[in-house]
Amino acid sequence: MSLSKLLVASLLASVLLFHLVDAAQPAYTQPQGSLLQHIDCNGACSGRCRLSSRPHLCHRACGTCCRRCNCVPPGTAGNQKVCPCYASLTTHGGKRKCP
């Protein structure tokens, strides 16, 4: 009788331990050798914001958009069609977020 209780308790403890180990692992891991390459946001945004009248504000907004979309349109202005995600981000006021 006590042997069965010990067996049930150890089985329950092992299931709980496996559950805790499984919960500690991240839900999504990027596979090694992924085809998606991340761009250099600092370099791309430096080029995008080099002629801006407010370069620090431009670089901060561009960096946020670049990290979310992994894309920055070429040139210092316009070309929004090249990166649809970049062009679609807006502020709370409904204005375009990305320079």
Automatic annotation (TrEMBL):
<keyword id="KW-0732">Signal</keyword>
<feature type="signal peptide">
    <location>
        <begin position="1"/>
        <end position="23"/>
    </location>
</feature>
<comment type="similarity">
    <text>Belongs to the GASA family.</text>
</comment>
<dbReference type="Pfam" id="PF02704">
    <property type="entry name" value="GASA"/>
</dbReference>
<dbReference type="InterPro" id="IPR003854">
    <property type="entry name" value="GASA"/>
</dbReference>
<protein>
    <recommendedName>
        <fullName>Snakin-2</fullName>
    </recommendedName>
</protein>
